[in-house]
Amino acid sequence: MQTSTCQKSGECRIPDRATLPATLYQQLADFVATLPTKEGHLVTVLHKAQSLFGYLPKEVQEFVADQMDVSLAQVYGVVSFYTFFTMIPKGKHPISVCMGTACFVKGADKVVDALKKQLGVEVSEVTKDGKFSIDCLRCVGACALAPVVLVGEKVYANVTPDQVKDIIADFT
Fold first, then answer.
1. What's residue 59's pLDDT?
2. In the chain, which residue ranges form alpha helices assigned H by DSSP?
3. How far apart are CA 106 and CA 43, in angstroms?
4. How far is CA 84 from CA 47, 59, 156, in A?
5. Are the CB atoms for 149 and 109 separated by under 8 Å?
6. What pTM was computed for the model?
7. According to the 3-state scheme, what is the secondary structure of 79-93?
8. What b/e sequence results for 73-104 when a residue is b if at least 16 CB atoms lie within 10 Å of its CB, and e otherwise?
């Protein structure tokens, strides 16, 4: 097992001007320390980082680069390549609307408009209370259920604009 910079020095080297909790950085460093090797585990560490922090801002990417002994450019390359990773904060209950052909034809754009109106935010924004964010996806592969809305991992099928208020109420 490898030792991380946190184990060597006794404390984690948090990026300058870090705005996120030090305890989360420590948890991530502890996770890295459990890996059998750093090589080949960058995506795994980024998944863990995103699950801890909720997103991958530059300061977290810098920390991951340091922990994994790779360049920031390599970390950024992975983060920007995979659509699962996000550099934008998400709400506690991220809402994703499928905009694939079947969903769009069946009114997904109207569902997005209803969500924006109900929550008072645009796509890619987070509500002031941090509870919700709205994103659009290309396709979730559930065309028979179109239009599809995901709130976290909960799937809503055949969604109409009139159902948006009730969907939001499930999480308030």
1. 93
2. 5-9, 22-34, 42-53, 58-68, 72-81, 101-105, 108-119, 164-169
3. 35
4. 9, 19, 20
5. no
6. 0.66
7. HHHCCCCCCCCCCCE
8. eebbebbeeeeebbeeebbebbbbbbbbebbb
Q: What is the dihedral of CA 171, 57, 111, 113, to 10 degrees?
A: 110
Angle, in degrees to the nearest 10, between helices 42-53 and 72-81: 70
Q: Please write the tens of the pLDDT for every residue from 39-95.
A: 999 999 999 999 899 899 999 999 999 999 999 999 999 999 987 899 988 898 999
10 has a pLDDT exceeding 60 = no
Task: Indicate the pairing of strand 154-156 with strand 149-151.
Answer: antiparallel
